[in-house]
Amino acid sequence: MAERRTRKTRSVSRKAAEVAVAAPQVIARRLTQMALAGAKPSARDRKEFQRMGAEKMAALTESWSAMAARTFQANQKLALSWMASLWMPGKNSQSLVKKAVREAGDALLDIADEGMKPIHRRVVANAKRLTRTKRK
């Protein structure tokens, strides 16, 4: 269980670090593109600007949906653990509560990981794509 938590923590941390590096690169490239496009952007520029907005909304929607689904699952599991502890009073209930607390911590990592996945995927892909794109 502790090994899983360590792996999950590393995964979430790695994704957050990659987003922290890639997001400013994407922002800088897109702001430069906007500045160079001026008042009359080309068709290519308009397509990129439209894509930028649509991707943000899609990533946000996917992220929130994934986190909500994972939160719902975690709440069900936590409620089941709580109800089980009521049926088994005594020493056993304390171990069930400790297990529930561990599971809640694991669930928080899972929720964060699920929320990072769509954002990470898009930001890193955009950084790679925009680095390859040549300015005309």
Q: Return the structural class.
A: mainly alpha
Helix content: over 70%
Overall geometric form: elongated
* Count of all domains: 1
Helix count equals 3
Calculate Rg over CA atoms.
22 Å
Major beta sheet, specifics? none
How much of the sequence lies in strands comes to under 5%
Helix/strand order, N-terminal first: HHH
Low-confidence stretches: none
Please report the total strand number as a whole number: 0
Mean pLDDT equals: 87
* CA distance, first residue to last residue: 53 Å
Give your account of this protein's structure.
This protein is mainly alpha-helical and 136 residues long. It has one domain. The protein has three helices and no strands. It has helices spanning 2-37, 43-87, 91-132. It is elongated.
